[in-house]
Amino acid sequence: MSELLHAGRVGRPHGLDGSFHVVQATPALLILGSSLHVAGRETEVVRRAGTDERPILRLTLAADRDAIEALRGEELLAPREAAPELEDGEFWAQDLEGCTVMTGERDLGTVAALIALPSCEALELESGLLVPMVADAVKRIDVAARRIEVDAAFLALDRLEDGPRHQDAGPDA
Predict the structure, then answer these.
(1) Superfamily covering domain 93-162
(2) What is the H or E stretch that residue 157 is in?
(3) 66 to each of 2, 110, 113, 126, how far by Cα in Å?
């Protein structure tokens, strides 16, 4: 597991003092006074404003609008040891990336990303298959073993194997 966790990305500047909007934010890692890594350099959060959904930060690394604009799009990384403890059933998204998703002995593929959908988060497999992160779909997650067990019936995987269920209504059918 990585020693650095994704805390967000540098977004558009906010004002002239080097403050910026954070996109793809992980609010629990964006704490005033905390240490972050940006573009390979360590920096400190000296201002935290906005909301958890739309945080605004200023870092010691960037003193003005031009400096932060040069970092736009860069990933913000936080040391794992500074992260809050997770509750049972909670995981850092990047710890799930690369895990093998299985249903019984059948390998469905590897997790490429954890994405936010309107109703829940979902595991996106390299094949494009989406697995909702709900109890009915995900039976067990073992981060240490890099394995996630899912319910094939809930995901209707048997129907995917059969192919499309429509018939061609054309004259040659």
Answers:
(1) PRC-barrel domain (2.30.30.240)
(2) helix 157-162
(3) 31, 40, 32, 37
Beta bridge partners of 50: 55
Rounded CA gap, 159 and 164, in Å? 8
Domain ranges of the chain: 4-82, 93-162
Residue 54: band (very low, low, confident or very high) from pLDDT cuts 50, 70, 90? very high
Task: Give the CA distances from residue 111 to residues 16, 68, 84, 93, 114, in Å, rounded to whole numbers and listed in that order.
Answer: 40, 32, 24, 10, 8
CATH of domain 4-82: 2.40.30.60
Cα dihedral sign, 75-80-81-83: positive
Which residues 6+ apart lie within 8 Å of 139 measured at CB?
A: 149, 150, 151
pTM of the model: 0.69
Q: Token digits for 149?
A: 């067990």
The model's pLDDT over 77-96, given as tens digits with 9 standing for 90+, comes to 999 988 888 888 888 888 99
